[in-house]
Amino acid sequence: MKNSSFNRRKFVKDTLAGAASIAGLTTLPLDLLASSDRLIPAESVNKDKSLPVLPSKIKFSVIGLNHGHINSQVEAVIRGGGQFISFYAKEEDLAAAFAKKYPQIKRARSEKEILEDKSIQLVVSASIPDERAPLGIRVMQHGKDFMVDKPGITSLEQLAEVRKVQKETKRIYSIMYSERFENKATVKAGELVKAGAIGKVIQTIGLGPHRMNPKTRPDWFFDRQRFGGIICDIASHQFDQYLFFTGSTQADVVAAQVGNVNHPQYPKFEDFGDVMLRGNKGTGYIRVDWFTPDGLKTWGDGRLTVLGTEGFIEIRKNIDIGGREGGNHLFLTDQKETRYLDCSQEPLPYGEQLVNDIVNRTETAMTQEHCFLATELALKAQQQAKTITI
Question: Distances from the Cα of 112 to the Cαs of 61, 89, 109, 252, in angstroms?
């Protein structure tokens, strides 16, 4: 065998040999900030207290609490070296509930109070999706960096304005693609692919099923104008992973389709979508839906398959259906054998990388162009998607 093949196998063997063999903790389900119907609960909130917390390097604040993803966003920044200073939400019930979770944190009287606080370097947000880009623009214009829940931008017009202001201000506009940044198996897969464990990447297949839980959803959740559409919203994760694993810097949407096939009571909603992609370094397929049945022990059987010239990796993000307990499962098949890697003890570097980028003005967590290109592809696919009826 060639030396490159030998080195790939040696890296994988050494990596797997050092991994824990026990199953990881089960991905916990919904974590509510409040009972308000204006809040969407987080599908997966990181509760791993074993992750280290670094000394504070920056000060940050929160504006907008409409999605429970704000929990994992805040915790990622704190772990990475962020000092949580203040928060603001225009909804009284959401603010009161959040204050109970973080009683030591100052509740600001207005958005303006945070934006004009010169000590704050980063603003974190999980506001209503179509309000995120306008907020991010105001944040950057006040000389602060911005980290936002996905979808971070809901229209091509918003994207053009965000790009313009980011270029003018040189601030960071980071969308937290949590299915990569906050999933340990996906982080580990990135290391393996970079090391050449499966050769040259040919294709990614990303599946993002979700449980709907309509009684927990606010009105805006069912309005495409507010959440951007199913491809813009939950498929944004898969576009990010496609670009990351293939290394593509250019890509076209080959085909896309969306539909509301089983929820006629919500005429502005979409419950299914899929996309085919072709890029300069690989191809991709994406499917997202709101059809996770109640019989599954987690909110969605999220999967990622990365096909390479020398093997493939399959990630079962939240559950190994009918198999091992917990989440963060990685299966690697190469020219020699198939192996399993429990990734539940792997680190999550995004928070630390983002904090360091804020301090050093670097792009180690994610380049700005990657962030915007993933969003651009999602928005174009959403715009081009054919509507299906079944």
Answer: 12, 12, 8, 40
What type of residue is 254? V
Q: What is the pTM of this model?
A: 0.88
How many CB atoms neighbour CB 240 within 10 A? 27
Q: Please tell me the CATH code under which domain 180-349+380-387 is placed.
A: 3.30.360.10
Residue type, 320: D
Give Rg (Cα) of the chain: 20
Report the relative pairing of strands 272-279 and 173-176 from DSSP bridges.
unpaired
266-313 pLDDT, tens digit each: 999 999 999 999 999 999 999 999 999 999 999 999 999 999 999 999
Pick from 341, 348, 324: nearest CA to 19 = 341
Say whether 328 sits in a helix, a strand or coil. coil
C-alpha distance from residue 348 to each of 79, 144, 253 (Å):
9, 24, 30
Q: How far is CA 225 from the centre of its chain?
A: 21
Output the six-digit token pair for 389.
């009826």
Within the chain, residue ranges assigned H as helices are 3-17, 70-80, 92-101, 111-115, 129-141, 156-169, 178-181, 184-194, 224-227, 230-233, 236-246, 350-360, 368-384
| 3-state secondary structure at position 204 | strand
Q: How many CB atoms lie within 10 A of CB 379?
A: 25
